[in-house]
């Protein structure tokens, strides 16, 4: 243990206080003894270092962002999910802290051993269910009498949400989350022994006007094989930028490149009356508002994008781009 080194002035002040009677040497000894005594609760054994807890927090901050994107698209409403806290507690204490009737999803994470638990506050779960069924997002807590259809919809919703866990954990280990159970009463669950240390990640969740918590309970037995990978050293080594782009990005780029757009070069414009239009004959000339010496506009899907000049290429009419029209630029020719 590191010892505090006193400066010469502090030593002189301390000796002076003892010699004048302002401070008792015996009291200093007693105080030093008291400092060495620390209360330790063996039922709340801390099996993860602060460094490892911070790594778990970073992983699930990424997971929270992925969940926000997933639920925003699925529910088509405002969703915000963020990490509120990461704590290590005995399993029994976690079970006592959650409601007696709530939404519980148990997942296995092969190749890791053991199972993890997702606890979703009923207030949030029913808001999600109402949105999926086409409602406004009203929350009605009736966990005790879930119908078979409601149970199936909720199970599928959270099973697909857990797929994001695979991406969030990919920097540490490749897992394949699989839902094993859907339960509403925590007393029927016994994943590990009551005194087993578990990491509880609490996520603040807001969906529309409703808010609540999503708790992720990860037993020590699940994380034990990958504890060395939760160090800062390992984390920094594996945060190198990836050269290859994600498959989703490549697929999206490929689809965008196949999109057809309309490109139109405008020679000029003219305003005529209906009467003049009705009396048009062959060889009549309509004067445009565009001078020959001025560049033409090239519009992409009706939006002016370039100044161009006309010409020919391989005996076909073409235009040559002269200048790009910047966004927000005032254009009198539009």
From TrEMBL:
One Pfam family in the UniProt entry: FliMN_C
Cellular compartment(s): Bacterial flagellum basal body; Cell membrane
InterPro entries xrefs: CheC-like_sf (IPR028976), Flag_FliM (IPR001689), FliN-like_C (IPR001543), SpoA-like_sf (IPR036429)
Keyword vocabulary terms for this entry: Bacterial flagellum, Cell membrane, Cell projection, Chemotaxis, Cilium, Flagellar rotation, Flagellum, Membrane
GO biological process: bacterial-type flagellum-dependent swarming motility; positive chemotaxis
GO cellular component: bacterial-type flagellum basal body; plasma membrane
Topology in the lipid bilayer: Peripheral membrane protein
Signal peptide as annotated in the record: none
GO terms, molecular function: cytoskeletal motor activity
Principal cellular location given in the protein's record: other
Residue ranges of domain Flagellar motor switch protein FliN-like C-terminal in the record: 255-325
Gene3D superfamilies: CheC-like, SpoA-like
Entry similarity comment: Belongs to the FliM family.
NCBIfam families: fliM_switch (TIGR01397)
Name this polypeptide is given: Flagellar motor switch protein FliM
Originating species: Thalassobacillus cyri
């Amino acid at each position: 243990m590191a010892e505090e080194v006193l400066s010469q002035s502090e030593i002189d002040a301390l000796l002076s206080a003892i010699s004048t009677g302002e401070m008792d040497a015996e009291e200093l000894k007693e105080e030093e003894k008291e400092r060495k005594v620390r209360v330790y609760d063996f039922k709340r054994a801390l099996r993860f270092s602060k460094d490892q807890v911070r790594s778990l927090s970073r992983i699930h901050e990424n997971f929270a962002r992925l969940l926000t994107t997933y639920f925003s698209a699925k529910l088509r409403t405002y969703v915000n999910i963020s990490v509120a806290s990461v704590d290590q507690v005995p399993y029994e204490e976690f079970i006592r802290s959650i409601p007696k009737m709530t939404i519980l999803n148990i997942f296995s994470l092969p190749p890791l051993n053991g199972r993890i638990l997702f606890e979703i506050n009923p207030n949030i779960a029913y808001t999600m269910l109402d949105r999926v069924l086409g409602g406004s997002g009203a929350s009605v807590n009736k966990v005790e009498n879930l119908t078979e259809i409601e149970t199936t919809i909720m199970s599928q919703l959270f099973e697909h949400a857990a797929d994001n866990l695979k991406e969030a954990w990919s920097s540490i280990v490749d897992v394949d989350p699989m839902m094993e159970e859907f339960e509403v009463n925590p007393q029927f669950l016994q994943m590990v022994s009551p005194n087993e240390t578990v990491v509880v990640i609490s996520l603040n969740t807001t969906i529309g006007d409703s808010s609540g918590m999503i708790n992720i309970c990860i037993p020590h037995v699940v994380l034990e094989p990958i504890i060395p990978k939760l160090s800062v050293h390992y984390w920094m080594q594996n945060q190198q930028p990836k050269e290859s782009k994600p498959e989703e990005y490549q697929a999206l780029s490929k689809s965008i490149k196949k999109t057809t757009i309309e490109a139109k070069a405008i020679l000029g414009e003219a305003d005529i009356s209906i009467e003049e239009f009705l009396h048009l004959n062959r060889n009549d000339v309509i004067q445009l508002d565009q001078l020959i010496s001025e560049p033409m506009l090239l519009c992409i899907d009706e939006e002016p994008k370039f100044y161009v000049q006309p010409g020919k290429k391989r005996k076909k009419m073409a235009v040559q781009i002269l200048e790009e029209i910047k966004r927000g630029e005032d254009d009198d020719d539009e």
